[in-house]
Amino acid sequence: MSTAPAAPTGTAGPAFPYPLVATDLDGTLLSPDDTVSARTRDALVAATAAGAAHIVVTGRSVAWTRHILDDLGYRGIAVCGQGAQVYHAGEHRLLTSVTLDRQLAGLALAKIEAEVGPLALAASRDGLDGEVLVGPGYAVQEGPLPVVPFTDVADLWAAPLNKVYVQHPGLGDDALAAVARETAGDLVGVTMAGEGIVELLPLGLTKATGLSIAARRLGVKAAGTIAFGDMPNDIPMFAWAAHGVAMANAHEDLKAVADEVTSSNEEDGIAVVLERLLP
After folding, report:
1. Count of CB atoms within 10 A of residue 149's CB?
2. Which residues in 172-236 belong to E strands, given as ranges?
3. Half-sphere exposure at residue 120, Cβ-oriented, CA atoms within 13 angstroms
C-alpha cells in the first residue's frame, strides 16, 4: 500500500487526494448506536463535493444494508455481503451477485465439525430481500434486523446463499476461524467480520473482489482509493486500496496491516482523517 496518488505533471488533479473513499459500516462508519454522526456525514459530504466518490463496503447483505443507505440518502453503488453483492442504492437493484456452492459449504461444515464438534449455524440467502436464517443455539446480536428461525438443517440449503455463519460453544472467534481455514480452507473462504461473526464464503471472495468491480464501474483505480475498516474481513480491502485506515477500536490483525490508525467509530475516526485531507 502507498500514500495518496500524485496528479500527473501539468494536469489538474482532484481537489480531494483520493477519488474514492471506501468505508466499512459496523464499527467504522456507524456509531455504536447504528447511526452516522453529523460530523462524519458532513465530512463525507465535503469530500464528495471536493471530487471524491464514497462507497460503502460491508459484510452485511443488501437486505440488512438498504435501510442504512436510504437513511443516509445514499444513491450510489454499495458493496455488500463481504463482496458478494454489488448494489445500486439509487436504483434499488443488484448489479452483481455471487452465491456459495452449497455442496462445498456442506462438505466444509462436515470437516469443521469433525474437528471441533457441532456448530451453531446461520445463513444469508441471496437476493434483494434475502432472508437471514438462524438455527438452534446461534446467538444473534440484538437489533431491529429480521431473522427467520429454522430447525431442520435441510432448510438451510433450500435456496441460494451468499454465506453461512458459524459459532462454537467453546471456541472464540479467532480460534474458530483458524480451525475453519485449516480444515476447510480449500473448499470455502473463511473470514471474521465482528464479534460472534465467523463466515464461510465462496472461495476467493473478499471485500476487495466486490470493491474492485464497483471501482471499475466508477472509473476509479486501487491507486486512487482510501479505505476505512475495523475487522479482519477488511484486510483484503486494505491490501487492494492505496491507503488503509484502521479505527482505534479495530481488531489487532487489521491494525497490523493498516497505513494509519485513526480515532474510534465512536469518536468520528473517519471524519478526523477526511477533514485532514480536505483542501
Report:
1. 12
2. 189-194, 197-201, 225-229
3. 17
Q: Of 26, 22, 11, which is closest to residue 208 (Cα–Cα)?
A: 22
Q: Which residues pair with 120 in a beta bridge?
A: 167
pLDDT tens string 214-230: 999 999 999 999 999 99
Note the pLDDT of residue 12: 44
132-134 sheet: strands from edge to edge:
148-149, 132-134, 120-125, 161-167, 197-201, 189-194
In the block, residue with C-alpha cell 462438505: 107
Three cell numbers, residue 133: 436464517
Q: What is the DSSP letter of 91?
A: T
Cβ-proximal residues to 81 (8 Å cutoff; 6+ apart), any chain: 59, 60, 61, 62, 97, 124, 162, 163, 210
- DSSP characters over 195-222: TTEEEEESTT--HHHHHHHHHHHHT--G
Grid cell in block for residue 279: 483542501
